[in-house]
Amino acid sequence: MTKHSEGKQRRRSDLVAGVAESNSAPAQPRKRPRQRRSRFTVLAIYDAFVRIWSRDGPAAATMRNVALESGFAIGTLYEYFPNVDALLIGYARHLADTALAKLDTELERTEGNWRERLHRFICACCDFQAAGYCDDQLLQLESSLARRGDYTRFFARLERRWMALFDSWDGPRPERAQVAAIALSVWGARYFRQRLGEVRTLDSWVDQLCLQCEIALQDG
Predict the structure, then answer these.
(1) Three-state DSSP state, 207
(2) Domains parsed from the chain with CATH numbers
(3) pTM for this prediction
């Protein structure tokens, strides 16, 4: 192992105990919960994982500690997640699903003109705190574990929500390329704002982003 890969492995070990070696593909969740009982179980596991991570730090978020915190047998955790890497990936996907569900809820609200609907949709898209707990260390580790296909699939789902918005309102109907650009710009702004943490001078960033998107749609 080179000095670079050794350093990378040490940095990841500082974040989470028991992660896979840096030169191996991260384990994936074994299955997505389908039935109500399994969904309840997985959500309880995520809640326990987040409580430990935020309270005791990333290194404490081991499979054994999550099992103790959640009240489930450790074998139950292994039914869904082979290790902590897979648990974190599953939680990141849960956050993404939650964010998209918020957009679906907003799409059901058809009242208001197109500017009002655009503002609400962007606000829902940029409300990263509503999706669930996620600190900078979680973001860093998630980005190191995620596969390229994860981002591709998520963006396709995100883009479909934007297209549904534009197809259902009384405002401009942008071309596909502009839809993708707006979706990418708004989500990218959300992600980078989340990484910045507390910056008081950016309190009105969502309003400014809405204004820029409105101008782009009018000019397009």
Answers:
(1) helix
(2) 25-219 (1.10.357.10)
(3) 0.83
